[in-house]
Structure formats: C-alpha cells, structure tokens
Amino acid sequence: MTGLRLEVDLGVLAANIAAVRARVAPAEMMLIVKDDAYGHGLEAVVSRASAEGVRWFGAFDVHDALVTRGVVGEGARIFSWLTVGREEIAAALDAHVDLGVGDAGFLEDIASVARTVGAVARVHLKIDTGLHRNGIRPEQWPSVLERSVELQAEGAIRVVGVWSHIAEASDETDDEARAVFEEAVSAAERAGFAIEVRHLAASAASFARAQFRYDLVRVGAFCYGVRSAHGESETALGVRPVGSLIAPVTRVDDARAVIGVGSLHGLPSSLARRASLRHATDALPIDRIDEAHSTVTAWAGSAAGEEIVVFGAGGRSATDLAEAIGTVGEEILVRVSPLIPRTYLGG
Ligand SMILES: *Cc1c(COP(=O)(O)O)cnc(C)c1O
C-alpha cells in the first residue's frame, strides 16, 4: 500500500510484549488497549496479543471491553475502569468484564445491577494513593471495605483486586503512594478478602522498580514501543515502535520537500520549527505544517513519489516528536486521525 498510512507491525508488537513480560515476570502483564490500542487498532492488537498468550486486557470503557471480549472469547480477563451507568454495567457483567471501582456509589450501582441480572460482579477496588483522579480516599477505605463484605456475603460482588494508579513522576511520591497502597491491600485482607491481583504500576514503574510489580502490571506504552518522554531509549528498554506513520512526498522545490500529512491528519502544527524528521542519517527540520501538507528540508534524492517516515521504524520516534512540544509519545499516536488507514504487517 502507498499513500499516507499508519503501518502497524504486529510482529514487533509480539516481540515487545515478550520483552515486557520477561522484564516483569513473575508478575503478569495486563495489556492496556484504551484509545483504540493507542491508535494502532483495537481488534488487530487484541487478536495478536491474545495469540501471544496475553491473559489480561485493560480496556478503559465498556464499549472497548465488549469489543475485546468479542475478539478473545472467554479465555482472557478484561478489566474496565470507567465509571458508567446501569446499562453498561449490565453489558459488562454479561461479558464477564472485571470492573475497577473508584467510588462507593459505583459499588452500589454494580451490586444493584448484579442482583437484578443474577450475576456476581468481579470488582477491583481502587485506592486513591495521591493522584486524586478517581479512587477511594484512604479515610473512606474502611467503610467501603465493610460495605463490600456485606455485598460479597450477599453474593452480588466478589472483590478480586486492589489497584491504584501512580504519577510515575518522582520516586519519592511513588514510594509514598506505594505505602498507601500496601496499607489498603492489608486492610482488604484483614477484612477477609482473598485478593487475587494487586496492581499499581504502568510502563515506567513496572520496568524501573521491581517492588511496584505485585501480581499484575498494566502496560500500554512500552508494548507499543513508545518510551517515556525524557526516559530511557527504546533500545535500552528492549522495545521497538509498533506504529509508523508514513507519508508520501508530493513535491520537491527550493530544497524543500512537501509531504502529504498535515494537522487535519493529526500532526500537531506546533511541531513546525520545533522538531525535525529523519531520513537515513539526515535530520530534516519541519518548516511548516498546514492542514493537509507539511514542508521539510529536502534530502538527497527526494522526489515526488518517495516516502518519508514521520515517526516510527527508521525515523524519529513518536516520543522524539512529542518531546519537542512538551508532550508524550502516546499523544502523538492517539492523535493520528481514524480516517488514516492502518495497514498491518507481521500478521
Ligand atoms: C493508560 C493507563 C495505563 C498504561 O500506562 P502506560 O504508561 O501507557 O503503560 C495503566 N493504567 C491505567 C489506569 C491507565 O489509564
């Protein structure tokens, strides 16, 4: 295929998954597939990951959880953590989706739907360890546990997990969060719950800090070959970019190459005059980004019909571009317009 496209190498995805699993073992890995699997295409990613033996998927919203269930069948666990209404709770329970619970009201809603449909909801209680982004506050934790004991005794829920999300910004705040987390797990165990999975870390902490891994780590970025901004290189992490945005050269004049990708395709226009692309060893500063085209310094031999890697294999990484405008590589990926075709290699 030619023309503007996001090439997604499923073989690289498989290799990255293997690298992450080896790194975090004996903890298990949940593959995070939110935002259309970080722009790579939910179904293709889930299908390949499932074939590689991934047994936990993190799908954020119920819609994506149901799509994921459709792809993997009953052989995997699917975790969804967006607080939703009764209809979606019912659909999630019907599809045996594990639910992340960050507030007492949502717990009641889940129990009430579970009673109605005659299901036992598997819940993972979320302790707020300081991020203040949904989560049960430590001072409310004892009462939520008490209520969970009642709901579990009644047969509406089963508490199978305790989890949280951390900033991964500094070791100190992460360590403070970890202390809060461990206290919450202990309290849940004292309340009588057999906690099957404790999960706290995403990509960065799961790699850097063994004591954050517990039973399960929730990894998105590194599985897609996206390193952290200002973090270790992809090579050091042992991963490679899964997605490559490839654009055609539409015209070359005045030592400038015009390429067929612009802000409407999802390329942030703020990259102009801040970032460069790469062709072989040449750095090609980006002059301007218009709606449907961008202009970069031409490289030796560039001509209309050639192609350039905007980010990905053989070019700059998504994180390289992101760093030039103060954001993260994931954002560069999820901004790629859904109208741009995804083409799959290594299937
Ligand atoms: C996105 C997300 C992750 C994965 O983060 P990465 O840094 O991409 O690995 C894990 N947990 C939660 C709750 C998330 O929202």
UniProtKB/TrEMBL annotation:
The modification N6-(pyridoxal phosphate)lysine is found at K34. SUPFAM superfamilies: Alanine racemase C-terminal domain-like (SSF50621), PLP-binding barrel (SSF51419). It holds the Pfam family Ala_racemase_N. Keywords: Isomerase, Pyridoxal phosphate. GO terms for biological process: D-alanine biosynthetic process; peptidoglycan biosynthetic process. Its cofactor is pyridoxal 5'-phosphate. The keyword Isomerase applies. InterPro entries: Ala_racemase, Ala_racemase/Decarboxylase_C, Ala_racemase_N, Ala_racemase_pyridoxalP-BS, PLP-binding_barrel. Residues 8-227 form the Alanine racemase N-terminal domain. GO terms for cellular component: cytosol. Gene3D superfamilies: Alanine racemase (3.20.20.10), Lyase, Ornithine Decarboxylase, Chain A, domain 1 (2.40.37.10). The keyword Kinase does not apply. GO terms for molecular function: alanine racemase activity; pyridoxal phosphate binding. This is Alanine racemase. It comes from Microbacterium pygmaeum.
